[in-house]
Each structure stands twice: as C-alpha cells, then as structure tokens.
C-alpha cells in the first residue's frame, strides 16, 4: 500500500508527509514541482528514509502521471499542489489558473484513466482527496453564521476563484465518472515551515529582523486559524472515514482580527526574545495599503467533521501560536535559507512601494 501526495514540499504538504511517516510505515510518493514555495529542506529529516520517494514534477504532466500511477499503484492521491498566496494571485493570476485549474484538470484525467483500468475492488477502495480552502465561500459580514459545506461558492480573489474551479472539477469527476473523491475546505493554517510571505511567519521573521510589521488596511479583517498539524490529522481522518463525494469543512473555531494576531506574536516575542533596546515589538507595527478586494471575514463551521468523523482540533490558538513562535526562534537557519533568491525579489515587488 502506498499513497501519492502532491505538493508535499510546501507548507502543509511537508507537515502532512512528516506526520504521516511518524505514524505509519505506508510509503509516500511525493510529487512536487518545487515552485518558490516548495522547499525540500522541510523534509530533511526524511533523508535516506526509503518510505519517502520524492519526484520533482508537475501535477499537470500527462506523461509523468500515468507512469507514476502505473509504477506505484497508490491507494489514494492527496492533492495539496497549488499556488496558494492571495497577494501573488493579484499580481499574477496566470500561474493560478495554470497550476490550480489546468493542473487539477490534468491530474484528474490522469488519475481517472488509470483508475478506470483497475479491478473493481481496487476502484472502490481508491480515494482522490482534494485539499481546498474556506476562501472559496467568499467573505462574511460580522455576525453572519460561519460557512457550512452548503454555503454557496462566492470566491473573490484570483486565488480563491482558481481553488473554487478546482473544487468544481473534482466534484464533477465524481458525479460524471464515479471517481471516488473527497474534498476538504480548511481555514488559515499556521505552524512550522510556513513560508514567510504569509501573515504569521512574516510577522515573526520581520519582528526579529527589526523590520516593519505591515498590517493591511485597518487590520480588522478576521480569519479562523488552525494549527497545521490539526489540519493534517483532519485530512488523515477524512481519508480514513470520509464519505465518498462529500466535502468536509475543517477549522479551528478560532476567529481573530489580524491586528490581534500581530499583537499576540509581538507579546510572545517580548517574552521569549526581548528587543535589545527593551522596547516592545509592537512598535514595529505599521499600517499599509489594503489588499485589493480584501475579504473581510472568514469563519468555518466545522461541526460536520466533528459530528460525522469525530475530529476536532487538538491545539488552541494559544498553544499553537506559542509552539509556532518557538519553532521560528529555533529554526532561524531555515528562515535564512528561505530568504534568498525569489523570495527577496518577491518582498520587493509586494512591499517595496508600501512599507
Ligand atoms: P504552499 O504554497 O506552501 O505549497 C504548495 C506546494 O505545491 C509547493 O511545494 C509547490 O512547489 C507545489 N506545487 C505548486 N504547483 C504545483 C504543480 N503544478 N505541480 C506540482 N506541485 C506544485 O501551499 P500550502 O499553504 O502548503 O497549501 C497547500 C494546499 O492547501 C493548497 O492547495 C492550498 O490551496 C490549500 N490550503 C492552504 C491553506 C493555508 O492556510 N495555507 C488553508 C486551506 C487550504
Ligand atoms: O483561508 C485559507 C487561506 O489562508 C488559504 O487558502 C491560503 O492559501 C492562505 O494563504 C491563507 O490566505 P490569507 O490571504 O487569509 O492568508 P495571508 O497570510 O496572506 O493573510 C492573512 C490575513 O492577513 C489577510 O487578511 C491579509 C493580512 N495580511 C497579510 C500579509 C501577508 C496583512 O495584514 N499583512 C501582510 O503582510
């Protein structure tokens, strides 16, 4: 038995691969294109481990995929691979259409062709698990009920539109061709190996470097935050027991305005690594131009996965963020390696005119 994970060198994918192999001896084929967000250093602890087979490649490669599927005969494909950063999607939506929509389409077609040729019992046991986001549901006003799985898809950014499109393709491949799919829609993750272009790692890394902490607009936008290892355990649970064709919302029951997140990080750093001048890190906070089309609030109703599959998060925001800040303090080499090449160029493009 083996599973094929796509995007397993990214933030969530690498946490998933590490957690999977910490709990199981079932091998993982890890297919990742290694875009700017793919970082094999995340998987350094698996070097020499025969249970982890890394393949550099694109989910949309219709020559490679049939070969991989025929060779490894996975019992499941778990699709993390995507362009994932909203701000990048605003600057350059093309890569999002290509990787998230066309890529998922080609992956589905490769998987469908291989799956259709399997014996019936293997067809029934196979799962295609598509990892998606709460952003496909659009934005909520304060006081509106949290997103349930039946909330309409109302994506507002090129990123969320591309993810919503991929969710629709996955759904259609089940209804039309019978491919046994599962879809998960999760809220904002945070934790180890998070690329420092996203809010939480950017704030930690900039604070320590004495740089500005750029808060978009008024900082009152609300997100629901989930520790990445809780997301990984939810995906394992959905893979194990989810009902074919269903979607499951995954969240942390933890809505917070961005400005509170920044303040909490600053307070933790004030204790764990005080500034040399004795001043609070929050002094580095600065308000910058807002993200165009910025969604005001996301909130996930994760009661279906709890009720039907018995999953709930193990971490609270307080425990998860303390672990995360401690991880970044202990892994400054990782940060330094990430902060080279494409990432430096990106910081200039995104913040050069704003900060
Ligand atoms: P990430 O950007 O850190 O990693 C994405 C990975 O996918 C990278 O390793 C990249 O090299 C790889 N990749 C991109 N295009 C590829 C392609 N065409 N073929 C093969 N590999 C490709 O992203 P992440 O934050 O780890 O997110 C993983 C998945 O989870 C995405 O599908 C994202 O939409 C979804 N998601 C993310 C969050 C979050 O808070 N980060 C929340 C909910 C859902
Ligand atoms: O909701 C799930 C989504 O969460 C995932 O699908 C995406 O892949 C993931 O990137 C994340 O999207 P967000 O846009 O919510 O995450 P980001 O970390 O980019 O921003 C979080 C909030 O913080 C958002 O309201 C924008 C704000 N922000 C972000 C950055 C990078 C700032 O105020 N300043 C910043 O510098």
What does the model show?
Helices cover 43% and strands 15% of the residues. By secondary structure, it is of the alpha/beta class. It has helices spanning 11-23, 64-72, 86-91, 94-116, 120-125, 158-177, 199-208, 228-241, 258-272, 303-309, 317-330, 332-338, 342-351, and strands spanning 3-6, 28-32, 52-56, 76-79, 127-133, 181-186, 188-190, 213-216, 222-227, 247-250, 255-257, 285-288. The longest helix is centred in the first third of the chain and has 23 residues, at 94-116. The radius of gyration is 20 Å and the shape is globular. Helix 1 (11-23) packs across helix 8 and helix 7 (199-208) packs parallel to helix 9. The protein contains 13 helices and twelve strands. The strands form three sheets. The protein has a seven-stranded parallel sheet with strand order 3-2-1-4-5-6-10, with helices on both faces. Strands 7-9-11 form a three-stranded mixed sheet. The protein has a two-stranded parallel sheet with strand order 8-12. The protein has a domain at 3-190 and 226-253 and 293-315: NAD(P)-binding Rossmann-like Domain (Rossmann fold, 3-Layer(aba) Sandwich). The structure holds nicotinamide-adenine-dinucleotide (NAD) and 2'deoxy-thymidine-5'-diphospho-alpha-D-glucose. 2'deoxy-thymidine-5'-diphospho-alpha-D-glucose is lined by residues 84-86, 133-135, 187-188, 198-199, 202, 214-216, 221, 223, 258, 291, 298.
